[in-house]
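testing teh design pipeline on a random one, pls ignore if ur not involved
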């Protein structure tokens, strides 16, 4: 199926052609016709599969079909500022030949600028929950004409504690609206939200089966501790095949420290986290897109909002506590059919999180060793560790698949008499 066969408006098809997009992705093939039918929809698919266009294109089509209607007609709710910017950029790209006025509303932006933007009667608002509700309560946004509500990354919004904000919005919007709920993963909380607030929704689930794409090579490096991780990170960032990389850290403070340390080493690097002003975050993202920054050190707050082409590597300096966050992180690479490399650094305290990740993705991270940077507590030689299949955990599909990295280290500890 092509976009042409979906009977999208000529101006939208023209914009798609200008971007070189002729054929929809699988999630777009399934979701767009259902969204165009006017029914509520719950759709889940892995990061990087084209979910954003799967709701942006139907939203633009709705606005094109009834140009005489005025006022706010489409509302898109996102969990992060970066994601709100991404959706707004895509809306303007695909709506280039339409008379559609879209506005991004989120925290960190100047209130005066937002008030002026809202006073111009936008057709579509893309917003984060907190700032949006603030404007609604102050009477600056008229919701009476909203026809379409989109919840983008609804699972992430639930994880971030936005459930009350979403309920407020559901109650404030007209009952006859259409609601589209998109998520990277469908868990019980997300399903419950859909059952409670959507009307007899269609469902599209592309997230079953393999959790991470084949085109992303996943590697694991065992480290003795933070200093060893630092040495590994510097070596990895020096690799010639590393074009652009995102390094994930557990905390904002750690992100700043790592960015400063890499900068001292001469790398083009910047941090990205929630304590930075919005102007600085916007400038950082733009510098990354233009190639002025080669390495971005980020926290999970930005994981789902970073949409930059050409990310060759994702490096987990700190493993995430959530296996879902691991999938979201590494999904920043291997996009648009390009290959990518995801590298995780793990010391002994990280092994419980490593086990959780391996069980969730249903596969084992391949252990790599860099000559000269071997862990001092290695239980086998560097040559052997590459060859040994460090199988791991209980896969998501329920079939046990050998022993985890953690359990193998424990077993080898008893046999080798080290790292007990």
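output:
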């Amino acid at each position: 199926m092509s976009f042409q066969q979906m009977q999208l408006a000529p101006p939208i098809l023209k914009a798609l052609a200008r971007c070189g997009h002729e054929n929809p992705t699988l999630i777009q093939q399934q979701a767009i016709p259902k969204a165009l039918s006017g029914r509520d929809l719950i759709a889940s698919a892995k990061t990087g599969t084209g979910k954003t266009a799967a709701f942006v294109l139907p939203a633009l089509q709705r606005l094109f079909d009834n140009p005489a209607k005025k006022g706010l007609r489409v509302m898109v709710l996102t969990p992060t500022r970066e994601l709100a910017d991404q959706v707004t950029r895509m809306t303007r790209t695909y709506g280039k030949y339409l008379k559609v006025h879209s506005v991004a509303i989120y925290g960190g932006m100047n209130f005066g600028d937002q008030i002026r933007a809202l006073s111009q009667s936008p057709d579509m608002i893309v917003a984060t929950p907190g700032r949006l509700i603030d404007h609604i309560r102050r009477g600056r946004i008229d919701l009476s004409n909203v026809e379409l509500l989109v919840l983008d990354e609804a699972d992430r919004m639930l994880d971030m504690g936005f459930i009350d904000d979403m309920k407020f919005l559901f109650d404030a919007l007209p009952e006859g609206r259409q609601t589209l709920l998109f998520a990277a993963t469908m868990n019980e909380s997300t399903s419950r939200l859909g059952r409670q607030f959507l009307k007899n929704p269609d469902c599209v689930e592309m997230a079953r089966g393999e959790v991470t794409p084949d085109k992303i090579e996943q590697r694991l490096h065992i480290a003795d501790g933070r200093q060893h991780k630092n040495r590994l990170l510097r070596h990895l960032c020096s690799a010639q095949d590393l074009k652009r990389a995102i390094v994930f850290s557990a905390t904002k403070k750690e992100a700043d420290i790592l960015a400063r340390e890499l900068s001292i080493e001469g790398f083009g690097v910047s941090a990205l986290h929630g304590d930075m002003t919005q102007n600085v975050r916007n400038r950082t993202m733009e510098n990354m897109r233009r190639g002025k920054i080669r390495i971005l050190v980020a926290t999970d707050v930005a994981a789902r909002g970073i949409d930059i082409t050409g990310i060759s590597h994702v490096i987990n300096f700190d493993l995430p506590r959530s296996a879902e966050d691991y999938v979201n992180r590494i999904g920043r690479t291997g996009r648009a059919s390009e290959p990518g490399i995801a590298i995780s650094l793990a010391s002994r305290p990280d092994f419980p999180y490593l086990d959780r990740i391996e069980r969730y993705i249903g596969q084992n991270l391949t252990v790599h060793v860099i000559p000269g940077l071997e862990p001092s507590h290695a239980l086998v030689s560097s040559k052997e560790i590459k060859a040994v299949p460090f199988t791991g955990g209980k896969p998501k599909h329920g079939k046990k698949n050998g022993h985890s990295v953690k359990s193998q280290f424990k077993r080898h500890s008893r046999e080798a008499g080290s790292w007990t």
